[in-house]
Amino acid sequence: MLVVAVHGSAAPEAATTVGRLVRTLGVPALVGHLDGQRPSLADVLAGNPGATVVPLLLGDGFHRRVDIPAVARRFRCTVTDGLAGEPDVARAVHERLLAADGPGDAVVVAGAGSTRPHGNDGTRTVVRELSAAHPDIPVLDAYCGAASPTVPERVAQLENAGCRRITIAAHLLAPGRFTRALDATSGVHAVSAPIADHPLLARLVLNRYESVRPEVLAA
User: Fold this and answer.
1) pLDDT one-digit tens code per residue, 4-60
2) Could you give the CA distance from residue 1 to residue 57 in angstroms, rounded to a whole number?
3) If you average pLDDT over residues 61-73, what whole number do you get?
4) N or C end of the chain: smaller count of CB under 10 Å?
5) Nearest-5° angle of CA 158, CA 161, CA 166?
């Protein structure tokens, strides 16, 4: 059984977005939440011992390194790598950026933010990929929480440098508190949509699952 581990959000649109992802996987899959939403990851794994858990996470921070493995061990489940740093994540963010009338004359890649070592590497990877695609404009990172600079700080920096069509590339999975904050950011030309329901993400999740299935079946 494939179990997709998600952070969770009280925003109904978040569950709808993740639901679209799950429906395109082509294999039976369940969703387990890490942060207060139901069903919790622990509840899902308790009913599916030995499942394969794919963390639907764009960073390699606390949830990926600590929370999910701790729950999975209790139910003899296998945990795959997360999605941080995957080129297809950057491609999905880039396509969403282009669809949002970007890149304009500057791009802020907005990640959730983490205080853990390497927790923001995924966002920085997207910055490098978008910088390579748009070498004539600044492409800089910023964070919605737990790390700096913040998105408003980065936008102000670019405005002070003379940029007037600043686009935010959301390195986020689903609608929620962070996307609402991005939409409310002043001085921004456009904000791209989150990427959980992008076809490239579905392919990544399925590849993660299928990469460990032979090991699980042989165990």
Assistant:
1) 999 988 888 999 999 999 999 999 999 999 987 899 999 999 999 999 999 999 988
2) 19
3) 90
4) C
5) 35
Q: Are 54 and 80 in contact (CB under 8 A)?
A: yes
| pLDDT given for residue 80 in this prediction | 96
Output the pLDDT for position 213. Answer: 66
Cα gap 68→20, rounded to integer Å: 23
Q: How many residues does the chain have?
A: 219
Cβ–Cβ < 8 Å for 173, 8: no
3-state secondary structure of 19: helix
* Torsion (CA) 83, 6, 189, 97 in degrees, nearest 10: 40
Report the pLDDT averaged over residues 51-71.
91
Taking alpha carbons only, the member of 108, 102, 111, 107 closest to residue 84 is 111
Report field, pTM of the whole predicted structure over 0.70: yes
Of 105, 120, 104, nearest to 171 by C-alpha is 120
What would the two tokens of residue 135 be?
């070498």
Buried b / exposed e along 59-91 (16+ C-beta atoms within 10 A): bbbbbbbebbeebbeebebbbbbbbbbbebbbb
